[in-house]
Amino acid sequence: MNTRETEAPYRARPGEALISLLGVTKTWPGAGASAALEGVDLGILPGQFVCVCGPSGCGKTTVLNLIAGLETPSTGEVTVRGLPVRGPAPDRTVMFQEHALFPWLTVAENVAFPLEVAGVPRGERASRAERYLRMVHLWRYRESHPHELSGGMRQRAALARALVVEPSILLMDEPFAALDAQTRDVLHAELERIWIETRKTVVFVTHNVREAVRLGDRVLIMGTRPGRLKRDLSVDLARPRGSNDRDVAELSLVVERELRIEVEKVIREELDDARIGADRDLHREPGRDLGGGI
Amino acid sequence: MRTGIFIASLVAIWAAASRSVDATLLPGPDEVLRALWANARAGMLHRAVLKSLGRLALGYSISLTLGVTLGIALARVRAVKETLGALVLGLQALPSVCWLPLALLWFGLGEAAILTVVVLGSLLSVAVATEGAVNSIPAVLLRAARTMGAEGIVLWRRVILPAALPGVLSGARLGWTFAWRSLLAGELLFVSGGVGQVLEFGRELHDMALVMGVMLVIVALGLASDRLLFGLAEARVRRAWGLDRA
């Protein structure tokens, strides 16, 4: 079998980890009994491609936001290179499910935006933006506005924008979830190629098991109520891969079985909740109060 | 094309109607044009128009500056929202011309009084629209901006203001209309000079042709300024921002 199952495999070697979460708990003020995250220990090695999978409400996006510095843990510590995360930093860029491109800027201006914020001189901005626009095959569309592009092209532009500051960590929150299957396949291949080329450390959140197995070196399965890490699987499959490779398909089935237990638990609890008339919000997946207070 | 035919038939109906009733109550199009022409040749009309437009430009500039600032503060500063917020909503219910008696007592029968009315007439709608525009910026854009390290002045100048621009622009357009109406109401009631006063002058002389002529001028000026100043700008911004699906 291609899977090697490991219980909390990286905890013992914190010195090696690029990103580490130690005893991280996250609760929302006013939320019900279950914590969004409880007792999460996780170490991610440099250059690893880690996919985080789980049912809605398991806190997978919270894990990503904690690493991004968009949220702070209630207890425990999130560190990058041994230093506690205090907020967003250009060394950790984020790609969202929505492309989040600025509609008033052209594709090239969008990609150059983080460089402008960082105070990179104009000439260098242009050449670096060009390099990454070519990498995602959008150079021809540099003068277009985001609304003139297809969904897949917008996500490619967002990817170029995330890469242009040359971060060592790329955080991706279901970036391809809104795309059709064919476009997603193409983007998986491009992302894999770019990852092989640049060797970023990637944390990729998805609810799509096939996607997780197709892309990741490592797949984390999260459970819910409270949100926690349930399984940590290595994916030792050769690259480049394809979504329909037999190995990918087989391993996906194994992971899916694990995940189904969690999903059924959510459904059962939702039914219970409905029965007792409680209207606790299951989708406490945060992001809801982000962007406020800037 | 259709608009042209519609307007032409309106004028035709007007001409027919004026012939069948007392011409002093409803003068025909030809008489109205003649009255306008006579006034224009005497120089009275264009002096009045310039005077009104000057007041409008000054008052509107003030209210645009203050309104956008106030709107941004309402959207982003909680203390301002909790104090001025209720006041702004309350005062919006007050037609601007109601400020005129107060303004006349404070500033006397002059430019300051009319400016007060114009500013108060349009300031609040600009502020409310700006607040709405800033509040409805998609959270994901701000989150993305934060992850790219944009904060403070850069965040404002490069993200928040451009993101809010389409909404601010429609607020500005609305504010312009309100400023124009407030100005005419003020001129009509008290203050000397300006288009509103020519209207009042026509009423006193029972010169119905002049009254209708000035009304036409007011419509034309309002329409032209709206189209030229805002229509073009708004269309351009909406297209660039991708808000209109072509």
- Separation, N- and C-terminal Cα atoms of chain B: 22 Å
Distance between the termini of chain A: 49 Å
Question: What is the CA-based Rg of chain A, rounded?
Answer: 19 Å
Got a strand count of chain B?
0
Descriptive key words:
A: seven-stranded mixed beta sheet; disordered N terminus; disordered C terminus; B: mainly alpha; 83% helix; globular
Secondary structure layout:
The complex is a heterodimer of chains A (about 290) and B (about 250).
Chain A lengths: L2 E3 L13 E8 L10 E8 L4 E5 L6 H9 L6 E6 L2 E2 L7 E4 L11 H11 L4 H14 L15 H13 L5 E5 L7 H18 L2 E6 L2 H7 L2 E6 L4 E8 L10 H30 L19
Parallel strand pairs in A: 4-9, 4-10, 7-8, 8-9
Antiparallel strand pairs in A: 1-11, 2-3, 2-5, 5-6, 10-11
Chain B lengths: L1 H19 L8 H13 L2 H33 L1 H15 L7 H8 L3 H25 L3 H9 L4 H38 L5 H10 L3 H33 L6
Helix pairs in contact in B: 2-10, 3-4, 3-6, 3-8, 3-9, 4-6, 5-6, 6-8, 8-9, 8-10, 9-10
Protein model, in words:
The complex is a heterodimer of chains A (294) and B (246). Chain A has 294 residues and is an alpha/beta fold. Chain A is built from seven helices and eleven strands. Chain A has helices spanning 60-68, 107-117, 122-135, 151-163, 181-198, 209-215, 246-275, and strands spanning 3-5, 19-26, 37-44, 49-53, 75-80, 83-84, 92-95, 169-173, 201-206, 218-223, 228-235. In chain B, helix 3 packs across helix 6 (111-135). Chain B is globular, with a radius of gyration of 22 Å. Chain B is mainly α. Chain B has helices at residues 2-20, 29-41, 44-76, 78-92, 100-107, 111-135, 139-147, 152-189, 195-204, 208-240. Chain B contains ten helices and no strands. Classes of the chains: A alpha/beta (294), B mainly alpha (246). The interface between A and B is medium-sized, with 30 and 25 residues.
